[in-house]
Amino acid sequence: MRARHAVLAEGLRKTYGTHEAVVDLDLAVDPGETYGFVGPNGAGKSTTINMLCTLLRPSAGRAEVAGHDVTRDPDSVRRGIGLVFQESTLDGELTAEENLRFQADLFGMPRARARRALADLLDLVELTHRKDSPVRTFSGGMRRRLEIARGLLHMPRVLFLDEPTTGLDPQTRVAIWEHLHRLRAEQEITIFLTTHHLEEAENCGRLAIMDQGQLVVEGTPAELKGVVGADLVVLRTGDDERAAHAVRERFGLEARTGPDGVRLRTPDGAAFVPRLCAELAVPVHSVTVTPPSLDDVFLHYTGRTIREADGPRQPDFGPRR
Amino acid sequence: MAQHELHARTAAHPDPYVPAEPPAPPDADPGRDADTRPPPDADTDADRGLGRDLRTMRVLWHRETLRFGRNKLRIAMGMVTPLMFLLVLGTGLNSTMSEDSLRDFRAFLFPGVVLMSVQAPAIAVGASIVWDRRSGFLRQMLVAPVRRSAILVGTCLGGATSGVVYGVLVLLLGPVADVPYHPGLLLVLLQVGLVAFAFTALGVAAAVCIRRPETFQVAVSLCMMPLFFLSGAMFPADGLPGWLGTVVRVNPLTYAVDALRRTMPGDGAAVAGGPSGPRWGSWTPPVAVEIGLIAVLAVLALAVATRRFSRVEE
Ligand SMILES: Nc1ncnc2c1ncn2[C@@H]1O[C@H](COP(=O)(O)OP(=O)(O)OP(=O)(O)O)[C@@H](O)[C@H]1O
Ligand SMILES: [Mg+2]
């Protein structure tokens, strides 16, 4: 049982009728890597995960996870993976603790170790005080936390997270990511996740952008953003209209005014700011320079912003903050 | 778009979610072996085969009993219909019957009432599978390294256990129907367990084949009533005319009712002045054969369910 890759896919494909959900996917994820899938709704992210987790039979191609073929030896694959589904998969009638214990027992964890892991994880997701309440009384975020705890319970070597932190508050998100990074460092656990949160994608060592069943591009977040290259500069000034006009006149840059001030995009915004301030006649109250976001990357590679692709959300041309 | 190098940025990171320490770069060493770390589940690596299946069954059984015990209201409601049959139907016929024949009729009805009470948990278990699929819980089980057949068997055992609980509750009412407390009731209870298991297996088979909870509900209510009425629970199964006799004879419930009736202490079996069970030609199948039929039915249902379940793709 020697494997160079934690996840390996070759020509993986899934067809529903005539609809191609995943098309000729090639993937290679190293052990200990954090690998992220970004893409709009219907891109095929969950379908890919389901195939890798042995829940869905690929229409063509092959895949290996944790060193085992997903179609020929699904049992060994299942032994080595943990999975947090996109949708909630808890038993609402059982309590938080019972849900976790069910999983521990199903995986045959020894009693003592299960008890310890269970207590630790309930602590991590801050549900210890609610461990005896039925899950149906939990809020959406609490359920999510419990599911993440369940995914980690049997200490999988490859952890699949399908939009893991949707609906979580920022503190919890940070806590969970800290834990994941720690796990990765200590145990060389491989994390494979999908996300719509571009901020979350920054946690990944490597990212793939998926669109319409295909991998559009793959690279580190920095690499991907480097290709796009333009920083977002937001100015707060005494007179936004005049300032925007001046930017267009003097620097020939596209500048828009909005509720948060004047927004413009330029490569190397940091170096641009001193020049800008020197040139502007209106008083400048504040300047923020934001490096390109993955949203910009997505736009660059697919011609749409991820938000457009996702449907009606707030129109924007960069990360707000 | 212009390529350029990334420089140090003046602004704070745009993202409030990224932890203070940026993630370490991915492991660059491609020669690294995925399995250098001792697998945390080393102690369960040998965990295949029977031991694992038994454990799976126990876990699933435990879950069903937890869910069952938690829902007191459902237990109470499951008892309503059987009690109605036993008390209301029996008493309502009062005017048309003498005191003696009414007692006899109650005694005759009693095995059917026991059977009816066993239906409720069986249906509930089937429904819970349909809901588990809807709620996603099922997928969580499917991705665990356990045999799917063990999942189903465990679930059916859970349903059978709940059935036995109902059975005990109804049997406690025995004296109302002239069925005395008698050690023979233990034998009855064993039969109830088997029948409950078969029922649950049928419910589970239906649940595995039907995706939508609404459809399941309709299908179950469409099946259960006719099955019950055409089973010899309400009237003797023997000597029925033409098609009715045929339907009753192919209805598996007929044999369950009859087996219970013949095992039950008291004299409900003799109400029509002799054996009232189904007959094949001139041969009356003994209780053992009737029980065997139920067992075969359970195994068949389970086999169908497992076959379908193993091919489930979510
Ligand atoms: N069971 C199914 N039958 C038919 N088509 C399906 C099925 N499951 C998924 N699809 C289709 O496959 C495509 C990919 O779906 P998938 O769930 O993988 O998207 P996704 O990238 O996970 O999207 P999201 O961000 O919304 O979760 C979609 O067009 C979807 O309609
Ligand atoms: Mg998805």
Write the topology of this structure:
The complex is a heterodimer of chains A (321) and B (314).
Chain A: E1 7-16, E2 19-29, E3 34-38, H1 45-52, E4 60-65, E5 68-69, H2 74-80, E6 81-84, H3 96-106, H4 111-124, H5 140-153, E7 158-162, H6 170-187, E8 190-195, H7 198-201, E9 206-211, E10 214-219, H8 221-228, E11 230-237, H9 240-251, E12 255-258, E13 261-267, H10 269-279, E14 284-290, H11 294-302, H12 306-310
Parallel strand pairs in A: 3-8, 3-9, 6-7, 7-8
Antiparallel strand pairs in A: 1-2, 1-4, 4-5, 9-10, 11-13, 11-14, 12-13
Helix pairs in contact in A: 3-4, 3-5, 4-5, 8-11
Chain B: H1 50-70, H2 72-92, H3 99-135, H4 137-142, H5 148-171, H6 184-209, H7 213-229, H8 242-250, H9 252-263, H10 287-310
Helix pairs in contact in B: 1-5, 2-3, 3-5, 3-6, 3-7, 3-9, 5-6, 5-10, 6-9, 6-10, 9-10
The structure holds adenosine-5'-triphosphate and magnesium ion.
Magnesium ion (MG) binds at residues 45-46, 86, 162 of chain A.
Primary descriptors:
heterodimer; A: 321 residues; alpha/beta; Rossmann fold; Alpha-Beta Plaits; 2 domains; six-stranded mixed beta sheet; 38% helix; 27% strand; globular; B: 314 residues; mainly alpha; 10 helices; 0% strand; disordered N terminus; binds adenosine-5'-triphosphate; binds magnesium ion
Mean pLDDT score of chain B: 76
Summarize the biggest pleated sheet of chain A.
6 strands, mixed
What is the total number of structural domains of chain B?
1
Small molecules bound: adenosine-5'-triphosphate, magnesium ion
- Total helical elements of chain A: 12
Separation of the first and last Cα atoms of chain B? 42 Å
Strand content of chain A: 25-35%
Strand-and-helix sequence of chain A, N→C?
EEEHEEHEHHHEHEHEEHEHEEHEHH
- Major beta sheet summary of chain B: none
CATH architecture of the largest domain in chain A: 3-Layer(aba) Sandwich
Number of strands of chain B: 0
